[in-house]
Design a protein that fits this description.
The protein has no helices and 19 strands. The radius of gyration is 18 Å and the shape is globular. The chain is an all-beta fold and 277 residues long. Helices cover 0% and strands 45% of the residues.
């Protein structure tokens, strides 16, 4: 029998629609209390193929003169959904209206079988407030040319919707490493960051470079310069780039984060790390 090599990922499914709009994606509303997730909203009723890569974007939640930290879950299943990706820090995300910064973005090498229902829920400092959630699935024919996982564990969440407090270095200096988790629960092969301001309604125009590290005392830098940018309308976009940090991280590892600010810190900041296994 002749085996014909497959060409890998060739299909795409998403929820952004087929025509131009300033509000692509699905509207998701935060809960009535800052620490409470709102009602789960369906993003895709049934995935059309086995997916091996997931891109998630959050838009239109940042608001001028308002603190707008937030966290969002991606869910699978119907009625009593299971959490697939917990607590993406979508706070201060910009939109498509040209008024400032654009969306936030995360990429995950995850296997999602055909026929899966996907949904989202969110909590934030701006309560009972709608935002837009985009999801793109890549997969279909063939076998992915990279490792994929089935579970995401989020490390460093404090009280929803905030992660672990981070103090960036100022004026381009590296900040100190901040422990996000002392001991990981599982083995991981990929890490994805989340980062946002905290309780800040007067953000200045800034750029931030975020690094990930592993280990204690003499931390090893394993990924450098995930870039985020913010404007004076309290909007943040990023990271650029959004490629996961592919690194074998055994269970019981210490994970750390540090951030460099292009100027002075004008408020608080917080972050988490999402581990794929």
């Amino acid at each position: 029998m002749l085996w014909t090599p497959q060409k890998g990922i060739v299909r795409v499914q998403h929820n952004t629609g087929t025509v131009g709009t300033l509000t692509p994606g699905t509207s998701v509303t935060t809960g009535a209390a800052a620490s409470t997730k709102g009602t789960a909203v369906e993003l895709i009723a049934s995935t059309s193929f086995d997916a091996f890569w997931v891109t998630i974007m959050a838009a239109s939640y940042g608001a001028a003169g308002s603190a707008s930290e937030g966290s969002m879950d991606i869910l699978t299943g119907a009625a009593t959904e299971d959490i697939l990706i917990p607590n993406l820090l979508m706070g201060y995300c910009g939109g498509m209206d040209g008024a400032g910064k654009g969306p936030k973005r995360w990429d995950f090498p995850l296997y999602i079988p055909a026929g899966t229902r996907l949904a989202a829920q969110a909590a934030g400092a701006l309560t009972s407030t709608a935002m837009q959630v985009w999801i793109f699935l890549y997969g279909g024919n063939g076998i992915p040319p990279f490792r994929v996982g089935t579970r995401v564990t989020t490390y460093g969440m404090g009280t929803v919707p905030n992660g672990t407090a981070i103090t960036p270095g100022i004026s381009g200096a590296e900040g100190s490493w901040t422990e996000i988790v002392a001991s990981t629960t599982y083995d991981h092969f990929a890490l994805v960051p989340s980062f946002q301001p905290s309780a800040d309604s007067t953000i200045n125009i800034r750029a931030y470079a975020l690094d990930l590290g592993v280990g204690a005392a003499t931390e090893e830098e394993i990924m450098r310069s995930y870039w985020y940018s913010a404007d004076n309308g309290e909007r943040m976009e990023g990271p650029l780039n959004s490629m996961p940090c592919f690194q074998d991280i055994p269970a019981a590892s210490r994970l750390v984060m540090r951030v460099s600010n292009s100027g002075a810190n004008d408020g608080g900041y917080n972050g988490v790390i999402h581990g794929v296994s």
